[in-house]
């Protein structure tokens, strides 16, 4: 079914100047970018976005990293968008990511892992609403 997922190009990938290469992978897989913007997350925005990880030991480092530079956030739409995007990204830890995935090709560490992608349609809906108003989303036929 046609589905939406939420994606972040993280500060490491923006710094490496590979936003376009990552967007190209989305598009080549058939996903459409139906909303996008660049922003530098505040501490509060990053903590709120990752609230489910608040108790994890990596939370402070995660928030520090995600506020260390600008990110690009986008909504991707297409067949099985959540799973398709997770396939494109590869494993969370780039050392475990399959060859040819975004994280294997562009990421260096589990924090600086180039991209975030929603893990389920329910989290996608929540994450999309966290960053985008309905009016900022431009679905196409
Ligand atoms: P992301 O998909 O953005 O969701 C949470 C992030 O926490 C994850 O990607 C990683 O970048 C980061 N992280 C750091 N350490 C861990 C860990 N041990 N397990 C899962 N995620 C981690």
From TrEMBL:
- GO CC: one term? cytoplasm
Report the locations given in the UniProt record: Cytoplasm
Gene3D superfamilies reported for this sequence? Nucleoside diphosphate kinase-like domain
Q: Which reaction does it catalyse?
A: a ribonucleoside 5'-diphosphate + ATP = a ribonucleoside 5'-triphosphate + ADP; a 2'-deoxyribonucleoside 5'-diphosphate + ATP = a 2'-deoxyribonucleoside 5'-triphosphate + ADP
Q: Quaternary form?
A: Homotetramer.
Q: Which PANTHER family match?
A: NUCLEOSIDE DIPHOSPHATE KINASE, NUCLEOSIDE DIPHOSPHATE KINASE DDB_G0292928-RELATED
Task: State the family it belongs to.
Answer: Belongs to the NDK family.
Name of this chain's protein: Nucleoside diphosphate kinase
